[in-house]
Amino acid sequence: MIGRGIRHLSNMARLNDKVAIVTASTDGIGFAIAKRLAQEGAKVVVSSRNQKNVDEALSKLAKDGLSDRVVGTVCHVGKAEDRKRIFDEAVKLGGLDILISNAAVNPTIGPILECSEQVWDKIFEINVKAAFLLAKDAVPLFQKRGGGKIIFISSVGGHRPFPLLGPYSVSKTALLGLTKAIAGDVATDNITVNCIAPGVIETKFSNAITTEGPIREESLSLIPMKRFGKPDEVASVAAFLASSDANYITGETILVTGGMHARL
Ligand SMILES: NC(=O)c1ccc[n+]([C@@H]2O[C@H](COP(=O)([O-])OP(=O)(O)OC[C@H]3O[C@@H](n4cnc5c(N)ncnc54)[C@H](OP(=O)(O)O)[C@@H]3O)[C@@H](O)[C@H]2O)c1
């Protein structure tokens, strides 16, 4: 069993010698991405708002034999001092090659025109502004290493707004534009900027959709594969985009939706 695990890791070592930051990586999609990048050889800075969650994530990764490839720190992406701390952690590991901007909030459910200015600002501060600021601080570190990869985590809602998640969906549409805007500016620096738009993936975030009931059935009816996605099925796409296999792809968004129809 152990021998099989080691073979599995060495076969996939596309990210040896790379250093990655994954925001919001103590659970769900971010955790799966952090784990997959580490399995592929990267050193990964794991983070979220809560130290206990960071510690638990690190101990789970240690159980998977990845303790020498992961470090953890608290980072609420809306706080400048926390963002600085994750970059400092990456520099301690040698520099930065990969930024996965995965954190998002959705504090409201309801018609978009009933969203308060305060809630709108909160959503855009975390989902868009923090993603922009992280990318802005990552680029000089990438330049020191001769290149880098940025991957934003958007949502199928960015292409096709969810009816009761309007502000969240619009913030995810903004990431599609941010991807293209930054990609164009850094293309000659050997830095690629891409985006993943997951469909409905089974995590705490999507609990209200994926647990039994009419919303679950209605959601499944929109998915040709008739099942929700797994965090690992997003992580594998992130690992591809973070690897040299995707060197000639930039400014793109990959939908990971089980075939849900979605276009802007
Ligand atoms: N699940 C889906 O169906 C789905 C679909 C499309 C897109 N997405 C996107 O995928 C991303 C991850 O979602 P998920 O489903 O994996 O969520 P999740 O399972 O609920 O995990 C959320 C993670 O984010 C951390 N977090 C929350 N707010 C944060 C903040 N301000 N700063 C830093 N970390 C923060 C949480 O840890 P702490 O509580 O310790 O901070 C936790 O590690 C989000 O961008 C989401 O919009 C998800």
TrEMBL record:
Keyword RNA-binding: no
Alphabetical UniProt keywords: Oxidoreductase
GO molecular function: carbonyl reductase (NADPH) activity
Highest taxon listed in the record's lineage: Eukaryota
Stored InterPro entries: NAD(P)-bd_dom_sf (IPR036291), Sc_DH/Rdtase_CS (IPR020904), SDR_fam (IPR002347)
Xref: SUPFAM superfamilies: NAD(P)-binding Rossmann-fold domains
Pfam families given in the database record: adh_short_C2
NCBIfam families hit by this protein: PRK07231.1 (NF005559)
Family as reported in the entry's similarity comment: Belongs to the short-chain dehydrogenases/reductases (SDR) family.
Name of protein: Dehydrogenase/reductase SDR family member 4
